[in-house]
Fold Peroxidase.
Amino acid sequence: MGSQKKNLSCFLPLLALAVVLSLCLGFVDAATSLQKPVKLQWHYYKHHNTCKNAETFVQHQVNQSWSNDKSIAAKLLRLASMDCLVTGCDASILLIHGPDAEITAIQNRGLGGVLLIHKIKTVLEQRCPGVVSCADIIQLAARDAVHLAGAPSYPVYTGRRDGMTSKASSVDIPSPSISLEAATAYFKSKGLDVLDMVTLLGAHTMGRTHCRNIEDRLYNYSGTGKPDPTMDPYLSEEMKKKCPERVKKGQGDPLVYLNPESGAHYNFTESYYRRISNNSAVLGIDQQLLYGNDTKEITKEFASGFEDFRKSWALSMSRMGSINVLTGNQGEIRLNCSFTNKDNPYLK
Ligand SMILES: *[C@@H]1O[C@H](CO)[C@@H](O)[C@H](O)[C@H]1NC(C)=O
Ligand SMILES: *[C@@H]1O[C@H](CO)[C@@H](O)[C@H](O)[C@H]1NC(C)=O
Ligand SMILES: *[C@@H]1O[C@H](CO)[C@@H](O)[C@H](O)[C@H]1NC(C)=O
Ligand SMILES: *[C@@H]1O[C@H](CO)[C@@H](O)[C@H](O)[C@H]1NC(C)=O
Ligand SMILES: *[C@@H]1O[C@H](CO)[C@@H](O)[C@H](O)[C@H]1NC(C)=O
Ligand SMILES: *[C@@H]1O[C@H](CO)[C@@H](O)[C@H](O)[C@H]1NC(C)=O
């Protein structure tokens, strides 16, 4: 098992030796924890005979939803990432009570995936009442939806339990204009390394963002009064048409595709990395990957080969999915993903 992991982790053949060493050494350590993701289990609900077909029910609902609306892949991916990165994968992102619940603090709206999670939960409560956590549903649904969009599937170990507080003090999703150094430190604080960061940012291969997240790049980069010099001038002109400078209060804040090449198809491909390589990334943080020592090498590697990106995707998603999970007697199994059982108005 160990050597298999090592092979997987050193799949970046074209990297300079020093980079390979530094990345792979760190990666092998981390990959070891992926072998036994904390206390989660492979097919937990089947194994414990509590809800044998839980994963099939989830996949069925995701399939149906995706066939109506491809954007569900990007939405579920964002939901799953934010849940794990904000407080750990405990579904606290779904709690709606309290003035400072995570969900109200998230910069990006577009949490349409929430509705699908509720639908899946309703089905599971009918089939296997009180058994399957919202936290597991989020991770399983995101895996299946993004797979339909073209990403590899990967094992989602299960047995997570749901958090009972919406720990708002740790809401800290960084702005898309964050510096590369700060982004690296942020991922590191979550136990994720540079390879994970470059890989997980690949989520921006699909989906949309608000113009306000790029207006600094288009109109006033770092207070210079000029566009970001690292943005391809043609792209910059195109984006300015879609995101007119906001001069009046109450002026709209349109949505633009994070990767115009994937656009309305919501395709999961390596085109995101190709666009970074020729200065055509939409978000500032994405473009900066081309200007960091290790991030540049990884970006070039992914741009030239979808396979490497796919393998890394499976590993990094799996690692992100085990951040601060609750298991055993921790937390609870929520009956409605929006409320802790104590605060659930339907249980009163
Ligand atoms: C979901 O769709 C995929 C791809 O079409 C298919 O392989 C899978 O069997 C479907 N799953 C369910 C539960 O319908
Ligand atoms: C859970 O709560 C939400 C928000 O109030 C509600 O819309 C939904 O119907 C509830 N779901 C179930 C299964 O009770
Ligand atoms: C650009 O930003 C700087 C610093 O925030 C500000 O002082 C300046 O007025 C802005 N320039 C324009 C043209 O908006
Ligand atoms: C993107 O998705 C569309 C529609 O599903 C498909 O026709 C197209 O071939 C895909 N492109 C890539 C690069 O995968
Ligand atoms: C950058 O690369 C993308 C993907 O290969 C391509 O579609 C786009 O035209 C390129 N842009 C420039 C300015 O070369
Ligand atoms: C990149 O490497 C150079 C030379 O080793 C170093 O001075 C610089 O701080 C590094 N930059 C980053 C972002 O790590």
